Amino acid sequence: MTRSKSVEAFKRGLNVFPDGTTRITIERDPYPIYAARGEGAALFDVDGRRFLDLHGNFTALINGHAFAPVVEAVTRQLRDGTCFANPTEAEIALAALICGRIPGVERLRFVNSGTEAVMFAVKAARAMTGRPAIAKIEGAYHGGYDWVEVSQTSASTNWGPPHAPANTSYYRGMPERVLDDVVTLRFNDAEGAAALIEQHADRLAAVLLDPMPSRAGLIEPTPAFVTAIQQTAARHGVLVIADEVLNLRQSYHGASARIGLKPDIVALGKIIGGGFPIGAIGGLADIMDVFSKKPGGPLVPQGGTFSANPVSMVAGRAGMEALTPAVFDRLAAAGDTVRSGLRQSISRHGLSFSVTGAASLLRVHAKAVAPLDYRDAVETPAERAAISRYVNHFIEAGLLVPASGMICLSTPMTEEDLQLIIETFDAYAALEAQQAT
Ligand code: PMP
Question: Which of 14, 69, 388, 394 has its CA 20 to 30 A from that of 266?
Answer without folding.
Answer: 69
